[in-house]
Amino acid sequence: MQAIRVHQHGDTDVLQEQVTDTPQVAKGQVLIKIMAAGINPVDTYIRAGSNNYTAQFPYTPGKDGAGVIATLGDDIQHLNVGDRVYCTGSITGTCAEYALCEIAQVHPLPDNITFAQGACLGTPYTTAYRALIQKAQAKPGETVLIHGASGGVGTAALQIAKAHGLKVIASAGSDSGRQLLTLLGADHVIDHHQADHLTLLPKNIIGKGINIILEMLANKNLGHDLPALAFNGRVIVIGSRGEVSINPRLLMAKDATIIGMALFNSSPDELSEAQEYLFSGLSQRLLDPVVRDVFALSDTAKAHQAVMQPGAAGNIVVTPHGNHEG
């Protein structure tokens, strides 16, 4: 099969398309014919060896993917060859024509969701659910600020928040990003490149403060987030690329909380809960993943560049078998 292989940390030029053996299934495993693989910032960190990420070489990148079951371990009874599925992680990597997964990593893909959309579920939507529902314990009627909302996790969080009955303030740094957030139903859209953008929020939007802030770039924004919080407000740190200085008294005055999270810390029960929620939301069309760009497998390097560019407006995927939908 064709697969992307990485033999050392480095820039995107270390992503090499090569011919490698198709994985063979064992008990408890599923081989998926990958129709689309999701590309997320974490994939670039692993490739580059940055932000405390590394890998065992050589490896095939990609945690998320969607496709059809090609082969099953002989002990698996509840799935069938040909079933449409998505995966939340894999044994062998998803930037390939086939990926080997543990059964717990494989989930049914609703018929109304394309393979490209299915490839956006594993990291972005599970992260968004974990942040908003499992960590922030969001309640209907609360106000959430999604600080950096136009990327994969941000658009997922916006849709989950609206489905959960929250008032949503969403920020983006580009015109196209802000247009997307408006289209997705954000109650108020702001430009986070504008100086003092949080202090300029109208009172009818911010009320007595923001209950929840989902923070994608804490090293830049965390110090500005804290004054905007309501009493008992929560900041969930989803992303950060450096250090930051804050005034702890701003937390003390409001009994506010900063919570860090990483998807890989999720328990099996938390992951199972998230996937059950996602299947229901997708089937009811409450959730509708946004695909920004689709690249061929041979252009995985371009996909890694695209996912890190400013002005995000949805998810990035690669298609090992061509640009197929269905």
Tell me what the structure shows.
The protein has 326 residues and is α/β, with parallel strands linked by helices. The protein starts with a strand and ends in a 7-residue tail after the last strand. The model has no long low-confidence stretch (mean pLDDT 95). The strands form 3 sheets. Strands 3, 4, 5, 6, 7, 14 and 15 form a 7-stranded mixed beta sheet that branches. Strands 10-9-8-11-12-13 form a 6-stranded parallel beta sheet, with helices on both faces. Strands 1-2 form a two-stranded antiparallel sheet. The protein has helices at 41-48, 115-118, 121-135, 152-163, 175-183, 203-206, 218-225, 249-254, 268-283, 300-307; strands at 2-5, 16-19, 29-39, 64-72, 84-88, 98-102, 106-108, 143-147, 167-172, 188-191, 210-215, 229-237, 257-260, 291-296, 315-319. Helix content is 28%, strand content 26%. It contains 10 helices and 15 strands. Strand 14, helix 10 and strand 15 (315-319) form a beta-alpha-beta unit.
Outline the secondary-structure elements.
Blueprint: E1 2-5, E2 16-19, E3 29-39, H1 41-48, E4 64-72, E5 84-88, E6 98-102, E7 106-108, H2 115-118, H3 121-135, E8 143-147, H4 152-163, E9 167-172, H5 175-183, E10 188-191, H6 203-206, E11 210-215, H7 218-225, E12 229-237, H8 249-254, E13 257-260, H9 268-283, E14 291-296, H10 300-307, E15 315-319
Parallel strand pairs: 8-9, 8-11, 9-10, 11-12, 12-13, 14-15
Antiparallel strand pairs: 1-2, 3-4, 3-6, 3-15, 4-5, 5-7
Helix pairs in contact: 3-4, 3-9
